[in-house]
Each structure stands twice: as C-alpha cells, then as structure tokens.
C-alpha cells in the first residue's frame, strides 16, 4: 500500500510540474504559435499526464488529458494553428486536471466532479477548428531548407542532390552534398543538430529530487557546525600550536564553503514563482478586456525557499492589482497616447545581500486625492492630517488595512484586503515594501527582502556589560566620537539626545537606557565640562615650581592654603562636580589620596621654612618629588581610561523610514550568527528578534531594530509628546551657550532659543483661516493660532501671505502657537551676550549671532498677547 | 491512576520539591545564563543547551522566595512543555523518588499567595514533605 502511495505521490508532483510547464508553454505559444519546440514541449507534458493516469487507473484524468492531447497533436502536426479559443480551451483543461489532482491528493480518488463538459468542449473545439483550418505545412524544416537558409548553399546544389536521390541514390542528402564538396561535414552536423533541436529539447538528467525536510535538517546541522566552528576559532586565538591553528583555519574555510553550498541547495530562482504570472496576467486581461504584456528580468535571481514561499502570495496580489486597476482599458490608453497594450515589468536582482523585486506597470498611477478621500471617509486619517501629508506619506495610505481606491469591486481586487496584507507578509520575513507612483505614468512597487533567514551577518556590540547582536541589514554606518568631541558632539533637544550626522540631526537611543541595563561606562550623559588633563598637569608642575621658588626666597605662600588639598588648581579640578560620578574609578581614588598626602607634606615644608629650618624644609621637599611624579603618572593613566570610557560608539540604524543612532559601549566585531527563536515567555518583548549562541558558548540576544526604535519612540508620535512635556518643565536658558534658531521676519534677522521650537512646518496660504480676529490654521486636529511676527512687531509686513508660509511651532501646556516667519536661516550654537533694547515690545534684546546682529524674540510675551489662549482640543 | 509515581526532586530555599519524572527532559548542573533585559525578573535568562536556546525560570523568584546568596549557583531541571524545553532554576538536585499516591494531600487552606497557585499538594514522606509543583503554571505566567 505504501509503495502505491509513493507512486501516486510521485505522480502528483510530476503532473503538477507538467501542468506548470503547460501553463507557461501555452501562454508563450500564443505569442509564437509556430514554435515547434514549444509545441513539442506542451504536447509531451500532456502526453505524460495522460499516459501515467491511464497506467494508474485514473480514467477521468485520462479522458480529459486525451481531449487536450488530440488538440495538441493537431497543432504539433501543423494541421491547426493556435488561436485564443484553443488556448483558452487548453487552459481550462489544465485547470480541470489540477482540480482532479487536488481531489486525488486529499481523498485518494478522482472525486465525483463531472468533466464531460470539458471533454466535449475539447472535441467540439477540435472539430470546429479543423473545419476552419487551412492546412498548414508545419513540419520540421527539411535539411536542405536549413542549409539554404542558414549556410546559403545555393538552391540548385540542393536541387541537384535531391534529383540524384530520386534517381536512386540511397544516401542521405547531407552525404551527397559533402561528397560533392559543396559543404563541410561539420556544417552538415550543425544543421542536423538544428533540425533535431526543432523536434525535441534535451531533457537534463543532472537533477534529482530531494525531500525539503532533508534540506531543512541539513541546514540546521550546518547551523550547529557554524557555531562549533566559531567556538573552535575562539579557542584557537589563544593557541600557539601551528598545526592546530592550521587545522582550525581549514575547518573555518570548509565550514564556510559548506554553509554556502547548503544554502544554495535551498535556493530557488525567483522564476519558479514568476512562471505562473503570465497565466494570471493573461486570464485577468482576457477577463477585463485589457491587453497586458508581462516582461521579466532577472528570473534566475535566487532566493531561499522559505522566502520564495512567503512572497508568492503577496506578489500574486500585487500583479492582480496592477492588471485590475493599474493598467487602463486599451481605449483609455490610446486616448492618452500610450500604446494600447499595457506593460507589466517584473525585475529581480541582488543588491547588498538583499534581493530586490520590482513590479512596475505603465498604467494610470495612484490617484492620491482619491486615496486621501477614501482614508478620510473610513476615518483612518483626519482631513487635516491628509492635507499635511507629503506625497510619500499619502502613497503609503495604500498600505492601510481595508483601503481600496477601486471604484468598483471586482472579484479580483477592490475589496480592500490586500496591500496591508502584502506589507505585513513582506515585513514578516524581514523585508520592506516601498511604493512609487506617477499619475498617468504608472506605479512601481519595490520589495527588498533578505536572502535567507537562518544565518545572518550581525554586528556584535556591548552595552551594560552584555553582548547584543545587531542584524547588519539595518546597519548604515558606525560613528565613533573620541576625546573632546565625545563630550560636546551630543546635543540635547529637551531631553532627546541628538547627534549631527553630516549636518542632519540624528536622534540617539542609548541602548543601556532603552533596555534598562546597568549604567556602565560611557553610555550615560557626558558631563558638560571636559577634562583638561594637560591643564591639570601643567598647573600641578607650575605649583611645584612656585613652592621651590618660595623655598628659595621668592614669592609668598600661606601655609593654610597650601595645606588644603581643595584650594589648588588640581584640587579644584579633582573635587569638582565633573568627577563626582566617576569616583568609583581606582585611579581617581588613588589620585585623591596622593594629592592629600602631598598637601600635608607641603604644609610641613612651609612650616619648616618659616621656622628657618631650611635643611628640614629641603628634605621634606625632596620627599614631595616622588609623590608628584606619581600624581603626573596617575593623571596620564586616568586620561587614557576616561578617553576609553568617554568615547562614544554610535551605530547608525535604519528602522522603517527613520534613521537613528544606537549608542553602545563597545563595538566588537561582525559575525555570521544563527538566528534561534525565543521561547513564548519572551514573545512580548519587542526589542529582541531572537537569540544566538556566541563563539564562547554564551547566549546573546539579537536586537530587533524596529522594536528598539519603537520602544525608544523613534518611529512614533509619542516622542513629540515627551519633547513637549519636557519643554514645559524646562526653563529657557536665555543667555549662555545655547542653540538658536535663526530666521528672518519683516526683513530683520531674528532668533529664538531652539529649545522653544517644537517643530518647523510649512503651510500653504490656502490653509489659513480666520477665527475671531486672528489668523489660525488647522494643525494636528487642533486650531493653532498664528502670529505673523512682522506684523506683530510693526515691521514692514513685506507681502500678504501667499504661497507657502514658514511656521515655527511653539508648544506650551499642550497648546501650539505658530510663528509665521519669512525664512528659516539656520540653527546656530553660540554663546551670546544679550544687549537690551529699550521700548521694543516682543523683543528681549539683540545679540551677535554668526557675526550679524540678530534680534532675540521674546516668545513668551508675544504668545501672551494672542487672543483666545484658552483654545484647546 | 497508578498507586505510585516517580518524582525528580530538588531543593529550593530548604524546601523539598518534586516534578513528575516523565516531564523532565534532563537535569544539568550550573550553566551560565544570559539575562534578558526588560523581561520579568522571574525569567532567570537564557541558557545554551547543546546549541538549543532554552528559557530558564528562576523558581525562587517565581515562588517569591529570597534570592540565592552570593556564590550559591543554580541547577537546571529541564522540563518538556508544549512549546519546547524550559529550564527550572533550583538550588540543588535530589534523587528520583517513588512515592505512593495514598500519601498525597492537597495543600492546607493556610497556604496562601503565589505558593497556593503553584503547589498542588504534598506527599508525606517518612522524614519530610515532598511538595508537588505545578510546572505548567510555574512557567506559564513567568
């Protein structure tokens, strides 16, 4: 029985393959109905299905396939020419066979479906077509024909040989020609090969079928091997035995190769999935009366099997969408000056360890206004939100669940399920979907997916004494800040740390804070003061010289100040606030100890000197010398330690559309890691994508970059709240080193503290509305009053609001006020000294910023004058 | 139900506990654990069980007992669950004992709090009580 099962299983697999071949073959044949090769291929496929089902006793299958075979044999013999009717009939037959195969797979029998309709349809099709057909000579070309066409052998030479043949020469035409010297034997061989190729295609015998389960098991084993290899390499690092190190190196190489090899066994060309799309597109375009041509590039691009499976449905959906409401009806296309036949292009290519798949159509594109309208109708966004949306944001509405712009619901698309599912499915396998659309020119969907899921390259980083793996896919770059830069380069927008990466603000997330790890080393906030080690050393040495001079009778030192370790320059530095949080460092403790000791000695030196006991003073002074040397040495050591402690490592990561910097203590290495799932107890924690085993056998967690970004509010709106709330709590620093937002209004250069800026917005003049006696704009579901700074300060108003307005949004206690300015100039960080200006209401004074006189706006006073301060959402 | 059952036993804070022998996959001496940040404290971390990553539940914390003293290492009792292996971190491993079901008694009403949820009852052995722990609950809500 089980043997029988095996045979049937094999039959099912084989038949499905054959049917796939039929599908694609038939669609291709429509384009090239004369191709003997294709005809032969599809004929063989159906013939095999018919034959095997006969042997296995599946009579229904046999009769359906028989009908198809009859038709195809006439086509192959050139008695019929393929047309749309015949193709549709044959495709229906393929579907019927599939249905029966499914029944066999699930129940073991052919089921009770009635297929007489199909068989009679096929036979009547055959009769009708045969009656219409003008007889065609579609047999394989004769050798003579090939020779004249391909090698330009004169026709009369062939004719002469042919007449010789008919005169009784039993030799074949090629032999006669070679003997006559008209042609080289190789050329005949070549022509014969061409002829053979026209009747049959070479069936490759170098493939075998392997159970997928076996491949998965192999993959797991290789995963284990990679781990063991990593462990061995770690041990090897501390070994000196050359032969052992050599063997470990070979093991390393072989494992890598094996890993690649096994990965390859799981790789399949994306063409395997794409093969069925010509059929899908053909069916749909026939159904809608559209003409669509599908083109494919990069069908040989290989992907992991699991990924191929995961993207199959999303891709089908995208294709259906594109044909259904991407590509227009032929008459519409013609009216727009496009070719009536729509084009659907599938492209796949490898790029940076990822696979890119692009599906583009040259259809009507996505109507953003309609999309927004739908989203508003479904209350998924508010009208104001929609109005504020950038083109890109609006396009992404497509991915909202339940949204469809199709005007009528068809059985293919327009039911509003789909694109959101596409997005979730792609994201599930670590991919991203991106959409571009140009009205009347078409839409392109770009999908980026990882090559494989099982083994990924990752960056190993340490934070809070623990190791974490960061998937390299999300990694953009690494930034290391050292020395003085480390203490100044990280700026603070009301509690949200940022770093200027090539002029753009990069929000920072401290990993130890995001994961609430032990606060170790660097990843906290740097003290504002930098540690001036050079200055400390110099002042210490200078101080010693001063003491020497004093003993030699020059200058004055009071013993009280000399004895107090806190009063000297080094002491002030050492006991200052900057060092407080690092008091656990042994060097600092030792330094304090030595320093105290030294001052005690200095005290006694001075007293001895005052008691005119110069010998004692000199002796004491010489004892200071070694302590002083140790202090200098300790300072040097400390500098090195703190340098390391203070260097900041920023891992710049991409999460969704956002970039952010993840601050870690140390960046160790990149490694290939094997991703292992976490137990269900840990499923709730978004920050981790899984775990892996490191070379030393310890477990390390794999960070989920998107999860971290969400936890740290990099990608949500919540952060805005946090910023606003801190903004309320914080008092504004008016002077001192601070960041200023510089802009122009009424032709004057002005600035406000950057800390008071919630965000910068652009509004179009058409969004302006009047409420009471003030100008307002709808903003985030609230009514935001606007202050035109130029008017308020009675400056030259310049122009009436028109076009787009630059608005600086100031938020306080949950309420926003917009300051209308002319132009945003820059953000300047500079210490300013404020010069008060008399009688100028709304200005707190002027200062020199970037070497230009700039008015400093008194936002608080301005805002207090705004009517209707009680407006709230 | 059999009249007798076998239990894999272990100690926690001086108390004697047992889990059904057939639920135990293996017993391992101390393995170093990797802490999972943001996870509830009850989760002792992750361990590397011959290439498989297994979540460890610290039974002391689960039963709201005092922490192990410094230098006292935990042992692993790895139990099978529907979702794969989970390790229970315990103080010390005992023998496998065979006890009679007749000696079983449900916990007294005076047992309260989290212990009441997790301790199904006690087997009265000659010299001590063997407390039967409900593994599903112990790891389920960890």
Question: How would you explain this protein's 3D organization?
Answer:
The complex is a heterodimer of chains A (873) and B (142). With 873 residues, chain A is α+β, with helices and mostly antiparallel strands. Helix content of chain A is 47%, strand content 23%. Chain A is built from 31 helices and 29 strands. Chain B is mostly beta strands. In chain B, the strands form two sheets. A six-stranded mixed beta sheet of chain B has the order 8-1-2-11-10-9. A five-stranded mixed beta sheet of chain B has the order 3-6-7-5-4. The longest helix of chain B has 6 residues, at 113-118. Chain B starts with a strand and ends with a helix. In chain B, 37% of the residues are buried. The mean pLDDT of chain B is 87. Chain A binds chain B through residues 224, 227, 464, 466, 515-517, 676-682, 685, 687-688, 691-693, 697-701, and chain B through 32-39, 43, 45-48, 51-55, 57, 83-84, 86, 139, 142.
Pair of chains with the largest interface and how many residues each contributes: A-B, 25 and 24 residues
**Classification by helices and strands of chain B:** mainly beta
User: Uncertain segments of chain B of ≥5 residues (pLDDT<50)?
Assistant: none
Class from helix and strand fractions of chain A:
alpha+beta
Question: Can you summarize this structure?
Answer:
The complex is a heterodimer of chains A (873) and B (142). Chain A is of the alpha+beta class.
Identify the notable features of this structure and list them briefly.
heterodimer; A: alpha+beta; six-stranded mixed β-sheet; 31 helices; 23% strand; B: 142 residues; mainly beta; five-stranded mixed β-sheet; 11% helix
Lay out the secondary structure.
The complex is a heterodimer of chains A (873) and B (142).
Chain A: H1 2-31, H2 36-56, H3 59-76, H4 84-107, H5 116-132, H6 143-151, H7 155-166, H8 173-180, H9 185-199, H10 212-236, H11 242-265, E1 267-269, H12 271-274, H13 277-288, E2 292-297, E3 302-304, H14 305-326, H15 330-335, E4 342-351, E5 354-361, H16 368-377, H17 383-388, H18 391-395, H19 419-428, E6 432-438, E7 442-450, E8 455-463, E9 466-471, E10 475-481, H20 483-488, E11 490-493, E12 496-501, E13 504-510, H21 511-514, H22 533-551, H23 559-563, H24 569-575, H25 577-580, H26 586-610, H27 614-646, E14 648-655, E15 658-664, E16 666-674, E17 688-693, E18 699-703, H28 705-711, H29 718-729, E19 736-745, E20 748-753, E21 759-764, E22 768-771, E23 774-779, E24 782-788, H30 789-792, E25 804-812, E26 815-821, E27 823-832, E28 843-849, E29 852-857, H31 859-864
Parallel strand pairs in A: 2-4, 9-18, 13-15, 20-29, 24-26
Antiparallel strand pairs in A: 1-3, 4-5, 5-7, 6-7, 8-9, 8-16, 10-14, 11-12, 12-13, 14-15, 17-18, 19-20, 19-27, 21-25, 22-23, 23-24, 25-26, 28-29
Helix pairs in contact in A: 1-2, 1-4, 2-3, 3-4, 3-5, 4-5, 6-9, 10-11, 13-14, 14-19, 22-27, 26-27
Chain B: E1 4-12, E2 15-20, E3 24-28, E4 43-49, E5 52-58, H1 59-62, E6 75-81, E7 84-90, E8 92-100, E9 104-105, H2 113-118, E10 119-124, E11 129-133, H3 135-140
């Amino acid at each position: 029985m089980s043997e029988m099962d095996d045979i049937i299983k094999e039959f099912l697999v084989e038949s499905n393959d054959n049917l796939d071949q039929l599908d694609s073959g038939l669609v291709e044949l429509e384009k090239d109905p004369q191709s003997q090769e294709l005809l032969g291929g599809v004929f063989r496929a159906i013939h095999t299905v018919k034959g095997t089902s006969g042997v296995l006793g599946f009579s229904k299958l046999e009769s359906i396939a028989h009908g198809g075979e009859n038709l195809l044999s006439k086509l192959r013999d050139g008695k019929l020419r393929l047309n749309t009717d015949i193709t549709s009939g044959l495709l229906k037959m393929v579907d019927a066979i599939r249905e029966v195969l499914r029944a066999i797979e699930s129940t073991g029998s052919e089921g009770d479906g009635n297929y007489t309709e199909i068989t009679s349809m096929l036979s009547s099709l055959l009769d009708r077509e045969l009656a219409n057909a003008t007889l065609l000579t579609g047999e394989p070309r004769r050798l003579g024909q090939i020779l004249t066409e391909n090698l330009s052998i004169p026709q009369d030479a062939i004719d002469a040989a042919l007449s010789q043949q008919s005169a009784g020469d039993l030799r074949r035409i090629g032999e006669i020609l070679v003997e006559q010297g008209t042609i080289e034997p190789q050329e005949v061989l070549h022509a014969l090969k061409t002829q053979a190729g026209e009747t049959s295609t070479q069936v490759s015998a170098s493939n075998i079928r392997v159970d997928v389960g076996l491949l998965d098991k192999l993959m797991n084993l290789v995963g284990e091997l990679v781990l063991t290899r990593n462990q061995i390499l770690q041990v090897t690092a501390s070994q000196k035995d050359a032969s052992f190190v050599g063997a470990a190196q070979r093991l390393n190489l072989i494992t890598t190769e094996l890993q690649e090899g096994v990965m390859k066994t799981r790789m399949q060309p994306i063409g395997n999935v794409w093969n069925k799309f010509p059929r899908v597109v053909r069916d749909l375009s026939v159904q809608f009366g559209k003409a669509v041509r599908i083109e494919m590039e990069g069908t040989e691009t290989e992907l992991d099997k699991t990924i191929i499976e995961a993207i199959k449905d999303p891709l089908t959906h995208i294709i259906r969408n594109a044909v259904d409401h991407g590509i227009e009806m032929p008459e519409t296309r013609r009216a727009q000056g496009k070719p009536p036949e729509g084009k659907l292009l599938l492209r796949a290519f490898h790029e940076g360890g990822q696979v890119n798949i692009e599906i583009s159509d040259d259809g009507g594109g996505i109507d953003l206004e309609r999309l927004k309208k739908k989203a508003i109708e479904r209350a998924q966004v508010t009208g104001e939100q929609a109005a504020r949306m950038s083109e890109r944001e609006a396009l992404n509405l497509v991915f909202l669940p339940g949204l469809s712009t199709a005007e009528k619901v068809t059985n293919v698309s327009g039911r509003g399920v789909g694109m959101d599912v596409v997005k979730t499915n792609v994201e599930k396998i670590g991919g991203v979907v991106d959409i571009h659309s140009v009205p009347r020119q078409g839409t392109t969907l770009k999908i980026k997916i990882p090559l494989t899921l099982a083994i990924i390259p990752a960056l190993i980083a340490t934070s809070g004494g623990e190791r974490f793996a960061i998937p390299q896919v999300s990694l953009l770059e690494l930034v290391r800040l050292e020395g003085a830069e480390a203490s100044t380069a990280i700026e603070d927008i009301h509690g949200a740390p940022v770093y200027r990466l090539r002029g753009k603000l990069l929000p920072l997330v401290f990993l130890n804070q995001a994961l609430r790890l032990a606060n170790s080393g660097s990843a906290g906030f740097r003290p504002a003061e930098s540690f001036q080690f050079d200055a400390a050393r110099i002042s210490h040495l200078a101080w010693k010289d001063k003491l020497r001079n004093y003993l030699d009778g020059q200058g004055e030192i009071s013993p009280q100040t000399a004895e107090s370790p806190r009063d000297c320059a080094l002491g002030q530095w050492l006991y200052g606030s900057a060092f407080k949080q690092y008091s656990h460092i042994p060097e600092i403790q030792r330094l304090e100890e030595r320093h105290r000791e030294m001052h005690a000695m200095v005290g006694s030196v001075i007293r001895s000197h005052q008691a005119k006991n110069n010998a004692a003073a000199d002796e004491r002074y010489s004892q200071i010398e070694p302590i002083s040397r140790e202090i200098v040495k300790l300072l040097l050591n400390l500098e090195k330690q703190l340098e390391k402690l203070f260097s900041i490592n920023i891992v710049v990561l991409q999460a969704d559309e956002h970039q952010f910097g993840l601050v870690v203590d140390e960046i160790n290495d990149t490694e290939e890691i094997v991703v292992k799932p976490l137990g269900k107890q840990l499923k709730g924690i978004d920050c981790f994508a899984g775990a892996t085993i490191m070379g030393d056998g310890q477990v390390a967690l794999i960070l989920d970059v998107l999860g971290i970004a969400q936890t740290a509010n990099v990608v949500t709106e919540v952060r805005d709240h946090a910023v606003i709330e801190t903004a309320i709590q914080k008092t504004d620093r008016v002077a001192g080193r601070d960041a200023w937002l510089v802009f122009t209004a009424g032709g004057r250069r002005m600035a406000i503290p950057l800390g008071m800026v919630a965000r910068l917005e652009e509004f179009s003049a058409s969004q302006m509305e009047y409420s009471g006696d003030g100008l307002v704009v709808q903003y985030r579901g609230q009514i935001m009053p606007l202050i035109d700074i130029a008017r308020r300060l009675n400056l030259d108003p310049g122009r009436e609001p028109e076009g787009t307005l630059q608005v600086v949004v100031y938020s306080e206690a949950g309420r926003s006020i917009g300051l209308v300015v002319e132009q945003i100039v820059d953000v300047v960080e500079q210490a300013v000294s404020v010069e008060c200006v008399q009688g100028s209401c709304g200005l707190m004074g002027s200062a020199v910023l970037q070497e230009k006189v700039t008015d400093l706006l008194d936002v608080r006073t301005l805002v207090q004058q705004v009517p209707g301060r009680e407006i709230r959402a | 139900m059999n009249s007798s059952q076998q239990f894999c036993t272990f100690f926690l804070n001086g108390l004697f506990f047992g889990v059904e022998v057939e639920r135990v996959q293996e017993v391992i001496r101390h393995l170093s654990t990797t802490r999972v940040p943001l996870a509830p404290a009850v989760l002792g971390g992750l361990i590397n069980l011959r290439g498989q990553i297994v979540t460890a539940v610290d039974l002391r914390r689960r039963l709201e007992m005092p922490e192990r003293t410094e230098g006292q290492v935990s042992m692993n009792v790895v139990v099978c669950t529907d979702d794969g292996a989970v390790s229970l971190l315990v103080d010390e491993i005992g023998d496998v004992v065979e006890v009679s079901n007749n000696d079983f008694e449900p916990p007294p009403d005076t047992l309260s709090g989290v212990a009441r949820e997790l301790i199904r009852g006690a087997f009265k052995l000659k010299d001590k009580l063997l407390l039967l722990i409900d593994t599903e609950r112990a790891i389920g809500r960890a």
